[in-house]
Amino acid sequence: MSYFNYALGLTNFRSPFLRTLVPCISLAYGIQGAVAIPSIAAQSERFYDLSGSLTYLSCTALSLYLPTMRARAAAAAAGNVKPPWPSLLASLTGSGPGMLNWRQVVLSAAVTIWAARLGTFLFQRIMKDGSDSRFEEIRKSPPRFAVAFFAQATWVSLCLMPVLAVNSIPQNLLATLPFLMTTDVLGILLYTGGFAFEATADWQKDRWVQAKREKKHEEAFLTHGLWSKSRHPNYFGESTLWTGIATLSAGVLLSSAGQLGMGLASSPWGRVAALGMAGVSPAFVTLLLLKVSGVPLSEKKYDQKYGDRDDYRRWKEETPMFIPKL
User: Fold this and answer.
1) How far is 230 from 315, CA to CA, in rounded Å?
2) 232 with 294: CB under 8 angstroms?
3) Is the CB of residue 206 less than 8 Å from the CB of residue 304?
4) Which residue, 77, 214, 278, 298, shows the most beta carbons closer than 10 Å to its own?
């Protein structure tokens, strides 16, 4: 028996949710551990953000294709013909044996697009800058640096929770859902708006930094574009897009099909648990950005550098910290 088949057998729980959750979380911590070892040895954070994006991409893909992997492994063990891999394009427009539900494809694509864009952007930035100020002290301490990598694995696992939950639901149950629900439309709109807001804010900041390097301006800090509407528009966009993913997922998980597929139909707390699985993603992201690694570090850094300047204090007074002004 191959290691892959052994792993499939070891995680073949009765619950479809656990059959997806355990392998994906294990993969998240495995990837982060593998990247942490050489990074700690070299005292380099160069691949930290890129490894986070790779973890998102890998866990999302695994959750989407894991049921088919199990079916193909079982067919091979029994000497039967292996079922084909599902077509993503066909799954968006129809349903049938071996196909995915369109919501699974859209949710997985949403995470993939976001992770690929952000990972590429952050990797290009650190290649230009050479270092990340967040890690100036952390990288010198192997235990603290290791904690940062495993914290990233936890971040990925919690943010992906609604997607992992939806991708774990058997196809025959998802096929009973209406083709389009209100939560589908609202979720897609929130994700699209949040993604566009974050990407635009990053693009504006990158252009501003590049222009400053080329000595095209002498501005100390960015106060125009989306940065005139919010002091942290990129963080607001990220929180919004994960709210969209959670909204679309919640519509599925709170349905009768979702409750049955998650094994929660007989529990009086089933809908509360489903809402928690969907809501943990934007709640954790927003908490992280507002209270831990996003806004606090950035505000402290800029307050120390420009806190004595009238124009900086005026920008802080006139510009909301997080939710943009109209």
Assistant:
1) 10
2) yes
3) no
4) 278
> Exposed, middle or buried: residue 291 (CB in 10 Å: 0-12, 13-18, 19+)?
exposed
Q: How far is CA 279 from the centre of its chain?
A: 13
- In this predicted structure, what is the pLDDT of residue 96? 61
Cα separation of 210 and 154, whole Å? 33
Q: Which residue has the tokens 């129809």?
A: 94
Count of alpha carbons within 13 Å of 157, Cβ hemisphere only?
A: 19
Residue 9 has pLDDT above 90, yes or no: no
CA gap 39, 48 in Å, rounded: 8
Burial class from Cβ neighbours inside 10 Å (0-12, 13-18, 19+) for residue 52 reads buried
pLDDT at 266 over 80: no
Three-state secondary structure call for residue 14 = coil
Structure confidence at residue 76 (pLDDT): 86
Report the distance separating Cα 236 and Cα 108, nearest Å.
21
Q: CA 134, CA 157: separation in Å to the nearest integer?
A: 22
- Structure-block tokens of residue 196: 């566009």
d(CA 141, CA 185): 46
Neighbours of 38 (CB within 10 A): 10
Residue 325 DSSP symbol:
P
The verdict on pTM exceeding 0.85 is: yes
N-to-C CA span, the chain: 61
**Cβ-based burial of 193 (10 A; exposed 0-12, middle 13-18, buried ≥19):** middle
